[in-house]
Design goal:
globular; Butyryl-CoA Dehydrogenase, subunit A, domain 3; six-stranded mixed sheet; Butyryl-CoA Dehydrogenase, subunit A, domain 2; about 10% strand; 5 domains; about 1050 residues; alpha+beta
Length: about 1050
């Protein structure tokens, strides 16, 4: 070796470290960690697939159809998440067309074609716009239009000459269909209906496929004959020319804008300006209008049949919810099995990290959801269940992890408008039983409505017997139903009772849903023959699925234990037994967890997730996915041109220019919220003084905000419509301008920091520069000596140095002890060599790392003479100060689009033996001498190295309170303005109720409002820690604070 330093490293045993480029190019040759998981379970995943899909033939059919798509390059979706919104839509259209072409070329039946479409939806992780054509438009056509009407339109629809949408929802009306405002007025002289949008709120808003795809729509509008309103009916309306696809005269169409997800679906808006359609375009199967304008309706057909298409669609959604929850479980359980974090306290000598799935808390979060996925899939019902992305840590918020699945589940959770309909149906069935003594077969348990629950306590083993827990679910439901009946019997009408007791209604319908699923699941696991239509299941499969049934029932019981104890069917002394059973079930299911999710039989292509892939090579997948990001294949210097140079130029000019000081504007306008505000005698201004601690604080915030409001650069109306790279550019421009404004107005350091906080609220998320001011600055001031700060702090404040906090790695998050990046001291060079020895040691997620920062506080393992001294922090230059190009040996990139915060450049970084001076180690807590000796400051615990993270988390407390306050402000103001439904206590009233007047909405929002106040006020009292704390009386308490 010519290089003596390299010779030293080899002698220290570091020659085994791989070069970074080799790490990233070589595929993993290690046996999959998931293989070991699968060997723990004797249950064949294939047999579980037969159970979940009801038969072997169903599984094989699904696989055959999926292969039609997998083999076609059009369905390669590797780059889908990296495309801008218009290109995502275009790709989805190309795929939709290819599905229909493949179905015809392979002469698939209608049933198999529909199945192929469902598989395709799974590929793109959400429905394509054409789904609305096949799922709702064609079904509405077949249900509500006559045979004569269908003779023309059904053929056109199946040949895709007519592409339809379901245009019911309006800007001002959602589930309250009775309140729709669009009109269809019959004009006898023209023998036509005139479709018209009389108000802004009557604009059709949200229908999928409306913005760009559909050329026809089933439009729901109020039928008006001779000035009389006959209520809402459906009409076939041509929206676009069949050849040119241009909007028809009088039809205005557009897109409602980017959404949190599902951006390959073109949800749109539409207004009609007296658009004429033939009289025969009314859906006439159940009611008609004659040539003379007379209204005829078929006898014994309820008006609600008009909404049957929506009911059918909801039934499809119920089934798809089980599948989506299953996908979420596959991703989170496979990733939790692969992800290793922390060490086994039961085996202190163990050097291998634990699988995250071995932690009881993770099992408690995920395995009940797995049980719920099996329950819903097997029963075809739906239960309200929750999260998944947070169970995967930070990686779960990348779109590449299958982020849209969260949105599918969240949307299904929020569909609580059906609770009152369910409650009314239950009351109707109960009323009929009391009159006739008969009940539908599935509702036989209602016969016990007047039977009081058993007062006998159960043993631990008895709580694992299905007949026992099914019985208590029945008794809980019957108790809530009795209480509900008693409450509404005192009301003026059943409708008023449902409205005035809607929280009880919500609890009753949830109890009913729980009962149906628990009862059906318990029946399904009675015998192997009950699980599949082809009787393929074995007792081994049955026993494992039965464990899931027990877990589902007992965790649902535990979640609402108060209701069970209130009803008298469960005693407080039962709860420890139930919890002990849950803990034991987690242990029993744990070996089968990966096999159980394999049973869903999702291919990697269908799952479309970097974290959920079958082979478990998640880190390779994450990195490979990030390489599809165009930002990682361009010379990007936005931070240099839009942030650093403007600030540096301003500082160099050192001119004393002041932006005009505008007082906070007095808002004087007529608002729909004025009446709401008059109801309260509380002055909102005084509440602001409370939440911000003083009047002077409020006025100071307003003054700083006006500095930004007065500058046109901070107009963010178009921010959400920009592609990701432009969002970052705008946020960077704003951050640069904020610093320029602070300099011109000679703001103090405290006011400058506060101005940046105000800016973050403007962009609805932190800009990348927040990592510089919030974490990098603090780390520099806390963990570096005064001599080190003398150079770097000045550079940082002048924005010549822009930093990030590079702690998290691809394979290590909160377990800092497990970090793998190394900092090896080379005495001959008096330098540290920063190196990424493995793929999982790659720095991954730090904000500002991808495009902004030119320095980073890098956390790495200190190695001296082959000995590991644990994790320390080092100042590492990442980019050239003038060109902003990466430094030699440093590889930088963007981790890709996330579910949110896409104006922050979260990045990755690898180091290939990057040399830094010895003095770049953070030396306030410990240092390395010129001779390579480790010297530690007495009385300072090692945990102080992570104190920057603690400071940041303390800041987040108040930030979370304010973020929740923003959400409450939006939702409560909108709920007060939004009107929906009519007051059952005042049947003659023609005005719709404010949504905020509904008890269920108050039950959802007011506790969150209380939490926002609690968190905001609590956050005030957390101290602002200073560097002096390291040598002060609190030093010994830092480890406790870290906990």
């Amino acid at each position: 070796m010519d290089d003596p330093a390299m010779e030293e490293l080899a002698q220290q045993g570091d020659a085994t470290m791989f070069a970074t480029d080799a790490i990233l190019c070589l595929a993993s040759t290690m046996p999959s960690l998931l293989d070991a998981e699968r060997r723990q379970s004797p249950v064949p995943a294939r047999e579980l697939a037969y159970v979940l899909h009801k038969s072997q033939s169903n599984v094989e059919k699904l696989e055959r159809l999926e292969q039609l798509l997998v083999q076609d390059p059009v369905f390669n979706h590797d780059t889908m998440n990296y495309l801008p919104r218009d290109q995502q839509y275009k790709r989805a259209m190309q795929m939709s067309a290819r599905v229909e072409i493949l179905a015809r070329r392979n002469k698939l039946s209608e049933e198999d074609t529909e199945q192929l479409r469902l598989i395709f939806q799974g590929f793109t992780s959400c429905s394509a716009s054409t789904t609305l054509h096949t799922l709702m438009f064609i079904k509405n056509l077949g249900l509500l239009f006559t045979d004569e009407q269908q003779a023309t339109w059904m053929k056109m629809a199946k040949q895709w000459r007519m592409v339809g949408c379901y245009a019911q929802t309006e800007l001002g009306h959602g589930s309250n269909v009775r309140g729709l405002e669009t009109t269809a007025t019959y004009v006898p002289s023209a023998d036509a209906f005139e479709i018209h949008s009389p108000t802004l709120t009557s604009m059709k808003w949200w229908p999928g496929a409306l913005a760009r795809t559909a050329n026809f729509g089933v439009v729901y509008a109020r039928l008006v004959l001779n000035g009389k309103d006959y209520g809402v009916h459906n009409f076939m309306v041509q929206l676009r020319d069949l050849e040119t696809h241009d909007p028809m005269p009088g039809v205005t169409l557009g897109d409602i804008g980017p959404k949190i997800g599902f951006n390959n679906v073109d949800n749109g808006y539409c207004t009609f300006n007296r658009v004429r359609i033939p009289r025969e375009n009314m859906g006439m199967r159940f009611s008609t209008v004659t040539r003379e304008g007379k209204y005829l309706k078929k006898a014994d057909v309820p008006q609600e049949v008009l909404y049957f298409t929506l009911l059918q669609t909801r039934m499809v959604f119920v089934r798809s919810t089980g599948i989506n929850l299953g996908k979420s479980c596959v991703v989170s359980i496979r990733y939790s099995a692969v992800r290793q974090q922390g060490y086994d306290a039961n085996n202190p000598k163990a050097k291998e990290e634990l699988s995250v799935l071995d932690y009881q808390t993770q099992q408690y979060r995920l395995l009940p959801l797995l049980a719920a996925a099996y329950a819903i899939t097997l029963t075809g019902k739906m239960v309200v269940v929750g999260y998944r992305s947070d169970a995967c840590g930070g990686h779960g918020y990348l779109l590449s992890s299958a982020g849209n699945l969260n949105l599918s589940l969240e949307l299904m959770q929020r569909c609580c408008s059906l609770t009152s309909q369910t409650a009314r149906a239950l009351l109707k069935i109960l009323g009929a039983f009391k009159k006739t003594g008969t009940l539908p077969e599935p509702m036989q348990f209602l016969a016990h409505i007047d039977t009081l629950p058993s007062t006998k306590s159960r043993t631990k083993q008895q709580w694992l017997e299905p007949q026992n827990y099914v019985a208590v679910f029945e008794q809980r439901f019957l108790y809530l139903l009795r209480s509900y009946v008693k409450k509404i019997s005192t009301e003026a009408s059943i409708a008023a009772g449902v409205q005035n007791n809607s929280v009880d209604c919500l609890k009753l319908t949830n109890a009913y849903a729980n009962l149906v699923i628990v009862k059906t699941f318990a029946e399904a696991v009675q015998s192997p023959a009950a699980l599949t239509t082809e009787f393929l299941s074995t007792s081994a499969v049955l026993n494992v699925v039965r464990l899931l049934c027990h877990l589902f029932a007992l965790t649902q019981l535990e979640a609402t234990s108060g209701e069970f104890m209130e009803s008298g069917c469960v005693f407080p002394t039962d709860m420890p037994l139930i919890r002990a059973n849950i803990e034991e079930l987690l242990v029993q299911i744990r070996p089968h967890a990966v096999t159980l999710v394999d049973g869903f039989n999702f291919s990697d292509h269908s799952l479309n997730s970097t974290l959920g892939r079958y082979d478990g090579n998640v880190y390779e997948a994450l990195y490979e996915s990030a390489q599809h990001d165009p930002l990682n294949h361009s010379s990007d210097k936005v931070a240099l041109h839009e942030l650093l140079r403007p600030i540096r130029d301003e500082i160099a000019r050192s001119q004393s220019r002041f932006a005009p000081q505008h007082p906070h504007p007095e808002v004087k306008m007529t608002s729909p919220l004025d009446a709401e505000r008059r109801q309260s005698p509380l002055p909102a201004r005084e509440l602001a003084y409370v939440l911000h601690q003083s009047k002077s604080n409020v006025e100071r915030l307003e003054r700083l905000e006006q500095l930004l409001v007065a500058d046109p650069l901070f107009n963010h109306e178009k921010m959400n419509y920009l592609p990701r790279d432009q969002q970052y550019k705008r946020a960077t421009q704003m951050a640069g301008r904020a610093e320029v404004i602070a300099h011109r107005n000679r703001l103090s350091e405290a006011d400058t920091a506060l101005l940046h906080v105000v800016l973050q609220s403007f962009t609805s998320c932190p800009s990348s520069t927040a990592l510089h001011t919030l974490m990098f600055f603090k780390n520099l001031g806390l963990l570096f000596t005064d001599e080190q700060q003398a150079t770097w702090m000045k550079m940082a404040k002048q924005w010549r140095m822009v930093g990030c906090y590079a702690q998290t790695e691809l394979g290590h998050g909160s377990n800092v002890r497990g970090l793998e990046t190394t900092a090896t001291y080379v005495p001959s060079a008096d330098a540290f060599e920063i190196h990424s020895p493995t793929l999982t040691s790659m720095k991954w997620w730090p904000g500002a790392l991808a495009r902004t920062a030119n320095f980073g506080v890098v956390y790495a393992r200190l190695v001296l003479n082959g000995k590991d001294y644990g994790v320390h922090n080092f100042m590492v230059q990442l980019r050239d100060l003038e060109t902003h190009d990466p430094m030699p040996g440093v590889t930088l990139g963007d981790i890709g689009p996330k579910i949110g915060f896409n104006n922050v450049d979260n990045g990755y970084c690898t180091f290939n033996r990057v040399r830094i001076p010895r003095e770049n180690m953070g030396m306030r807590v410990s240092m390395v001498t010129r001779e390579g000796k480790y010297v530690k400051t007495a009385g300072v615990p090692q945990e102080v190295l992570y104190f920057t993270m603690l400071q940041t988390r303390m800041t987040y407390i108040r930030t979370c309170g304010l973020a929740l306050a923003k959400a409450c402000t939006i939702s409560i103001r909108y709920s007060a303005v939004r009107q929906q439904g009519y007051d059952a206590n005042n049947p003659k009233s023609t005005e719709e109720l404010s949504v905020l007047d509904y008890q269920t909405q108050q039950f959802r929002l007011f506790p969150l409002l209380a939490a926002a106040y609690a968190i905001t006020l609590t956050g005030m009292f957390f101290p602002s820690w200073k560097p002096g704390v390291l040598s002060g009386p609190f030093a010994k308490d830092i480890p406790c604070l870290m906990m």
